[in-house]
Description:
By secondary structure, chain A is an alpha/beta fold. Chain A has helices at about 45-50, 70-75, 90-100, 105-120, 135-150, 165-180, 195, 215-225, 230-240; strands spanning about 5-15, 15-30, 30-35, 60-65, 65, 75-80, 155-160, 185-190, 200-205, 210-215. Chain B has a five-stranded mixed sheet with strand order 2-1-3-4-5, sandwiched between helices.
Amino acid sequence: METVIELDYIAHSFGSESVIKAIDMTVDKGEIFGLLGPSGAGKTTLVKIIVGILKPSEGSASVLGTPMPSLEKMKNIGFMAQSDALYSELSGRENLDFFASIYGLSKSERKEKIQEVLEVVDLTSEIDKPVEKFSGGMKRRLSLAASILHQPEVLILDEPTVGIDPVLRQSIWKELKILKEKGTTIILTTHVMDEADKCDRLALIREGYIIAQGTPQSLKQGIGANTIEEAFLHYGSAVQ
Amino acid sequence: MRTAAIIKRILRQLRRDKRSLALMIVAPLFILTLMRLVLDGDSYVPEIAVVDLPSPMVDALEEQEAEVHHMSEQEAHEELRNEELDAMITWDGSKSEVLLEGSDPTANGAVQQVLQQAMKEKTAQPAPEPELKFLHGSEELNLFDNTGPVLIGFFVFFFVFIVGGISFLRERTQGTLERLLSTPLKRWEIVLGYLGGFGFFTIIQSIIIAAFSIYVLNMYMSGAFWHVMLITFLLAVAALSLGTLLSAYANNEFQMMQFIPLVIVPQVFFSGIFNLETMEPWLRAIGKVMPLTYGGEALRDIMIRGKGFAVFSDEVYILIAFSILFIALNILALKRHRTL
Ligand SMILES: Nc1ncnc2c1ncn2[C@@H]1O[C@H](COP(=O)(O)OP(=O)(O)OP(=O)(O)O)[C@@H](O)[C@H]1O
Ligand SMILES: [Mg+2]
């Protein structure tokens, strides 16, 4: 299996506050890898390091064999931030058009791709409204659409399904599976336990450490737990 | 290419935000109109050179509120042109002739008042009225005409600073800056995109403000219109690059507003609206680090003195240098958000 993302004992601190501590992990091509952890655990910080926005204070992160940050590799990464980074004055379509041109898609490619991703996130009918009139879930879906426009090899999603109803969540997961089949490597953060079950592999993060990682199955079996939640609580207390 | 995408997006956003658009165009027009209505003169000690003037007249002048210098006609001409003098009085054997520098109506008024006083007090029978001539401008030049060019520059600077700075700030607070930095966009492409988007808009803004001032408010104008455009455009670019740079040090819109008394208001004092000659030299030196000082000077050269490019070229280069400096610092400041 080809390794796509490799974190080599990275640590990160904001000023004197150490947020990520010695995280060492790899993600293979075509995997859906979940980062599970409570609020403030450092999930967002970790994905920003992978994306290349933050440079780790220690250790190195590499994506597709190139140390990050690398502008060249950023072309192959799609990122959906935890907060919807959208231009509220512009319509949904104009937002997508802007992000698509940033990735250098031609006019006809943009048109085609925008239509395609809109169907994935089920936003086709309301896309010409200004984003400030979108509901929270609609903005979330638009952010997701913006992150897959350029068909990235690596997709990084920071809490992609917050505020999205169960039906749509299921259809998004279906789409993620399709992307995975096409060879896209996906990392997502979540604190929804049932969502964690759908990942190929998981890393449980707490206070900047990975307290356990493996397939959901193995994490549960190893300690005889029935749910990821139980497993999480188990490993969490072991650390303390 | 990617810069073009940013430019297009900014123009679209501006078009949606009608209120900010109005702020940048209508507010200056409104304030300029008000200024036109309220501006008035005040007292000022003029510097006058006398050339071969009969001594009773010189004595009379020296008793007035004026600094009287004795010099040759050639020297006086030179100093007048360098704006070190306000007026020169010559004597042709039977009557005096007064040549005013002319670009500052406060000074013009003061010189004329001094002359009238001197005449009234020292000459028993009414002497022939001295002949008045102007090196620049004319008798009609009033305070509005004098400060107008600076005001045009100031409003362009002020509103571009605010609107440009806040848009860039919002880019950060709404998370889109981070989103942009997760794409292969280079830092300079973002800064240039902003410059392009707002730059395009400020050209239109400058045309409207300058045309309104000159053709509707009848501001005195003896130079080339496109020279005025050039300077206002350069001022706008300096304002935009300074605004976006400083927005990095503000956490919200309100903090951005706090830069107004720190950065904008002081520039007004040094931009030529107030007479700099009465200022302490060290104080005057502060004005040297402010873009509006140069913009104001160049605009007055163009509009009041009708000067050509050669005269204000230094100011043009300095304004360009300011912009380049701010842009470079801006690109560096973005490093805080992404090291690459
Ligand atoms: N820019 C920053 N400056 C200083 N501290 C920060 C910064 N960003 C995050 N932190 C701190 O780092 C820690 C981890 O934050 P992070 O956003 O990575 O958590 P998270 O796991 O994503 O939490 P959540 O599930 O709530 O999104 C927190 O304690 C936070 O206060
Ligand atoms: Mg987070």
